[in-house]
Task: inverse folding
């Protein structure tokens, strides 16, 4: 099947199209049968060189059964060479299956996130209501307990009174006196002991 279509040429970001007659199975910019016009989108719309068409050759190819593409049919309708009606494609711009799946996943994540936020807000409101209904008791301040000093330190800190020392000495003397009375008489002095008889051999003689 023959097609009258555009073949892209030119440089990057500076396109230039040729209107060609080619087999429908040929690549877009590949082999073609005949060039029947040109289209330069870089020119202004009122420029006559923007679109040039070989009317006789186009009419001949149309008579042979060549079918123009939608864009070429629009150009030929401007020249009065062919009829063109805008196509009706209700699915134009509709996302594909993968894009629909991504949109559905985003919607599900948004719904789950909103539900989680609502649940967290409800839990926080319930906690606040519980706190207001049952206020926590105020903590009682504990009085600091003074540490008791060690026994040695207490003894060291208390001064020994002189009266106590005197009382202890008197008590000790009384104890000694009682002990002496319980044991026996006190030792006799040298004057109370009678002189022993002495035997002097010289006196006996």
Result:
């Amino acid at each position: 099947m023959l097609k009258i279509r555009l073949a892209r040429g030119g440089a990057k970001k500076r396109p230039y199209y040729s209107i060609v007659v080619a087999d429908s199975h040929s690549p877009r910019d590949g082999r073609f049968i005949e060039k029947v016009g040109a289209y330069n989108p870089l020119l202004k719309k009122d420029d006559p060189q923007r679109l040039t068409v070989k009317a006789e050759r186009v009419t001949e190819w149309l008579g042979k059964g060549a079918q123009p593409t939608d864009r070429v049919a629009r150009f030929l309708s401007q020249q009065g060479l062919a009829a063109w009606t805008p196509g009706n494609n209700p699915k134009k711009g509709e996302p594909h299956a993968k894009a629909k799946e991504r949109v559905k996943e985003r919607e599900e994540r948004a719904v789950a996130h909103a539900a989680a936020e609502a649940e967290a807000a409800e839990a926080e409101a319930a906690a606040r209501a519980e706190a207001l209904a049952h206020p926590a008791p105020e903590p009682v301040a504990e009085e600091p307990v003074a540490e008791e000093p060690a026994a040695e330190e207490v003894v060291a800190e208390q001064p020994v009174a002189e009266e106590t020392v005197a009382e202890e000495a008197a008590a000790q003397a009384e104890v000694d006196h009682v002990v002496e009375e319980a044991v026996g008489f006190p030792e006799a002095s040298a004057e109370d002991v009678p002189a022993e008889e002495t035997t002097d051999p010289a006196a006996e003689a």
Q: What stands out?
A: DSSP finds six helices and five strands in the chain. The radius of gyration is 66 Å. Residues 64 and 173 are 159 Å apart (CA to CA).
